[in-house]
Write a structure and sequence with these properties.
This protein is of the alpha+beta class. The chain contains ten helices and six strands.
Length: about 220
């Protein structure tokens, strides 16, 4: 492995792949499999379905984004779940890095648009995994239960093809549109993310965390 690739198998501040809990989780879910591709696939599904997608767990600190934190709470948003998958891969010696894109969610509800002031999700996170000589995108964000609620086909990952959000739901309605890719990084580019979020997501001081949680419960209970 060349020097450039070494950075993608080593621990970093958020991708704390050397943490004992990460090592144990990765070993439990991939340790008996014979090759990197089968291990990465198994880890993808372990993170996708073993950690609940929760967009209201945005703790934009290194401690809050750490893979070990997400594993402990078993809840995370797209970025934190991508970090966890990258950490699991690195703990098995599989090169992994963090990728980011801006996406438009056409299925965002009116209530969510009112809260976010936009239907664009900036710095959506995915994991980029180096397998069989190429980088493959893997998006472990939406767990299978969430997909069933929102009539989405769960994202699969075969270790070869890119696994990114589908443009349509199961009924042919527009779902996710990729607007721009922001690049792939060894660790989370937190300062750049914060700069974008502060610019694009105006804070409504009249809303509390409890209000946000209440809105989520209302939306998911309709499904």
């Amino acid at each position: 492995m060349n020097q450039e690739m070494l950075q993608y198998i080593q621990p970093s501040p958020a991708v704390d792949s050397g943490h004992p809990d990460i090592v144990d989780f990765a070993t439990k879910n991939a340790g008996d499999l014979p090759d990197a591709v089968s291990q990465a696939i198994s880890l993808y599904y372990a993170v996708r379905d073993g950690v609940r997608y929760d967009p209201y767990t945005l703790d934009l600190s290194i401690e809050g984004l750490k893979a070990s934190t997400t594993l402990r709470t078993r809840r995370g948003w797209c970025v934190s779940k991508a970090i966890l998958l990258a950490a699991c891969c690195r703990s098995r010696g599989i090169p992994a890095r963090l990728g980011f894109a801006d996406v438009r969610n056409h299925m965002t509800t009116e209530r969510m648009r009112r809260l976010m002031k936009t239907d664009v999700f900036f710095w959506h996170g995915y994991t980029s995994i180096h397998l069989s000589g190429r980088w493959a995108k893997a998006t472990p964000a939406f767990n299978i239960e969430l997909c069933k609620k929102f009539n989405l086909s769960p994202l699969e990952f075969d270790g070869t093809s890119d696994s990114i959000y589908q443009p349509f739901d199961l009924e042919g309605n527009r779902h996710m549109e990729y607007l721009a890719y922001r690049g792939e990084f060894t660790d989370v580019p937190l300062e750049k993310m914060m700069e974008t979020f502060m610019k694009e997501y105006p804070v409504d001081e009249n809303w509390s965390d409890a209000d946000f949680d209440s809105e989520v419960e209302k939306e998911t209970s309709k499904k």
